[in-house]
Write a structure and sequence with these properties.
Alpha-Beta Plaits; Rossmann fold; six-stranded antiparallel sheet; 12 helices; elongated
Amino acid sequence: MKSPKTVILALGSNLGDRRGFMQQALEKIHENIGWILEVSRIYETPAWGFKGNSFLNACISVSTRLESEEVLIELLNIENELGRERTDAENYQNRTIDLDILLLENEVIETETLKIPHPGIPNRSFVLQPLNDIAGSDKHPVSGKKMSQILKETTDTSEISVSSEKLTKSEMKFHFPAFNYIAVEGNIGAGKTSFSTMVSEDFNAKLILERFKDNPFLPKFYENKERYAFPLEMSFLADRYQQLSDDLAQYDLFKDFVISDYDVFKSLIFAKITLHDDEYSLYHKLFHLMYKELVKPELYIYLYQNTERLLENIKKRGRDYEQNIQPEYLMDINKSYLNFIKSQSNMKVQIIDISGLDFVSNRKDYLWLLSEIDKAVN
């Protein structure tokens, strides 16, 4: 899964409800590309390079997990949705909306369809003025000059004025920081690690991830469950207890809350399935001695995926030792989780069916998932 990057986009319109088209574009960018970080003032300028209506122009910065070509595709789709008409003519034309990628952090990209940084930046005041509003101290990836300096040096003397109209960015209307500690749970392959990581990046949370990759018993367990079930579950319990004890005890002044991609009670859930009765009895006693000492999550989110989708995800991520997991095993795990959830009275629990979603690749699915959580907790 990709970490977010900041892309700076230019918006322009000179047909119809110019500000309205730009605002609609802003909202579609939020829905399809990423979080709107900053929005410049709107500037009005004469048509540049052709005779036409005057333009409104602005720049925005966006946090996105999309690659540059993916951003370009989304922008073209938005332009089409907002009625931009393209012709084969080489000269500039009037347009309902014009969306361009100006910068993608310090990257320099040149393909047949895309050039970043945008080659027109140094020579266009209608780009440099709004760009200076939100990124005046940023350096051009090629020249190394600050955008504010490029604005001073530009040879474009076109008339430009600040418009009284403004664009309004979509806010992050989610309230995770109302909780100090959130646990995200789900079956094997449900997407809990991906979702927890995305939330931590987008909402300034301290992230606790289960260290299953470091467990030497896990591959052995999938080869010989009878022999390795007990040492596997004991090693997981010890590691989870130590990790949560350490991480939850260390208060981070720079983070708003804590999110984990597991809750320690999963140890008991899996142990119930994998251990013999006598082993489970001993394990149960040890677990509760540890469990009572741990901080409990204030919000427990269970991401439900149907078995078919879980198997698809497991196959896709390609961990060798998971490829022989049987559907019955996944169904048993799900039943155990639901039984645990039903027994909870002192913890806020939310079950969300995400079987038809791909919140990692589809931002609309991610926003839907966030909104479902937000509706339930407010």
